[in-house]
Amino acid sequence: MAKHGFIVRAESEDAKQRPWKAAHRDTTQTFDPSNPESLPAISALGTAVVTQVSDRLNTFLAAAPTLPERAINRSLLAQMSLWLTDDEHDQLLTNIMDLVEDYRERNIDPDKRPVDALRNHYFLAATPELNAFTSPSNSDHSAEENS
Fold it and tell me: Is the full-model pTM beyond 0.70?
């Protein structure tokens, strides 16, 4: 992952430890078909990110009963499946990223943050149904796929 610029060495008080940290606060990862080596790097980074997000979410859910209403109102758990063409999928992802672009500079420049702004964490993952690529026909629309 370091070779591809996703992680960098973190400082350590213990010379025996070799800690790593994310090279960037915000990341978007996609596989580069022109560089087959990127798939293992993206897979490793994806696993680490999903683990970190899962830990953060589980910590929040455990603390939720004791949190103020403002914290609860700023949380959202959403899961959905959508039937999209490749073009629709690409457009949806572009639209989502365009929505957040106006706010991303605030991560770098504190002067651009409104006084009452709080930091929220967002995680977006999009994956196709694997059976669409592993079964002879992806026209089997089971009840689970339609939810």
Answer: no
